[in-house]
Write a structure and sequence with these properties.
The complex is a heterodimer of chains A (116) and B (110). Chain A contains no helices and eleven strands. Chain A is an all-beta fold. In chain A, the strands form two sheets. In chain A, strands 2, 4, 5, 6, 9, 10 and 11 form a seven-stranded mixed beta sheet that branches. A four-stranded antiparallel beta sheet of chain A has the order 1-3-8-7, with no helix packed on it. Chain B contains no helices and eleven strands. The radius of gyration of chain B is 13 Å and the shape is globular. Helix content of chain B is 0%, strand content 55%. In chain B, the strands form two sheets. In chain B, strands 2, 4, 5, 9, 10 and 11 form a six-stranded mixed beta sheet that branches. A five-stranded antiparallel beta sheet of chain B has the order 1-3-8-7-6, with no helix packed on it. Chain B is mainly β and 110 residues long. Classes of the chains: A mainly beta (116), B mainly beta (110).
Chain lengths: 116, 110
């Protein structure tokens, strides 16, 4: 299994400000994923973060809005920049573990962001 | 366009009333299909991974099955503590993309 922690667990922010979310994993992983879950919606992948290279962003998400850092194999940050109320969402980080031929995906508890 | 569709959106069951949730997909190629349980205010909790048509996996009252275009999550004799949103996701062949369905919100009434 994987133990994933996120900070902060929730925050209320003003429009135009930025928030950095931290994700810590209990052991080394190659890829870390950042998702957004808007109210009443399912999960949407924002980007994949590999250590030592730039993050890969999904369609509709750009680095200027969601810069990501991946300084080592157990840690990543996602920044939500120049926030607007439409950014209100739960942000989740995730990792996959492969054991033999089985992949398992683990999620952090999420960061609940409200933008006023 | 790659897509994952879950049905029904919401399901209310009496305790002990068995039923099935559906996850259909049109993703090109499939490395794996994942089922999760999500409780309010929490991140998804991994349940199963299925890889090939005909595969089945079980955990307590849950059994997941996979065909070429869909997966079912069967819930046998559910209990109120099984109430949650159940999500499925398809992993693409490269392994680094997951497409999620919108989930089925299950409520089990005592």
């Amino acid at each position: 299994s994987a133990v994933i922690s996120q900070k902060p667990s929730r925050d209320i922010c003003q429009r135009g400000t930025s928030l950095t979310i931290q994700c810590q994993v209990d052991s080394q992983v190659t890829m870390m994923f950042w998702y957004r879950q808007q109210p009443g919606q399912s999960l949407t992948l924002i980007a994949t973060a590999n250590q030592g290279s730039e993050a890969t962003y999904e369609s509709g998400f750009v680095i200027d809005k969601f810069p990501i850092s991946r300084p080592n194999l157990t840690f990543s940050t996602l920044t939500v920049s120049n926030m607007s109320p439409e950014d209100s969402s739960i942000y989740l980080c995730s990792v996959t573990r492969t054991s033999g031929t089985t992949d398992t995906q683990y999620f952090g508890p999420g960061t609940r962001l409200t933008v006023l | 366009e790659d897509q994952v569709t879950q049905s029904p959106e919401a399901l209310r069951l009496q305790e002990g009333e068995s039923s099935s949730l559906n996850c259909s997909y049109t993703v090109s190629g499939l490395r794996g299909l994942f089922w999760y349980r999500q409780d309010p205010g929490k991140g998804p909790e991994f349940l199963f991974t299925l890889y090939s048509a005909g595969e089945e996996k079980e955990k307590e009252r849950l059994k997941a099955t996979l065909t070429k275009k869909e997966s079912f999550l069967h819930i046998t004799a559910p209990k109120p503590e099984d109430s949650a949103t159940y999500l499925c996701a398809v992993q693409t062949p490269t392994g680094n993309q997951f497409y999620f369905g919108t989930g089925t919100s299950l409520t089990v009434i005592p």
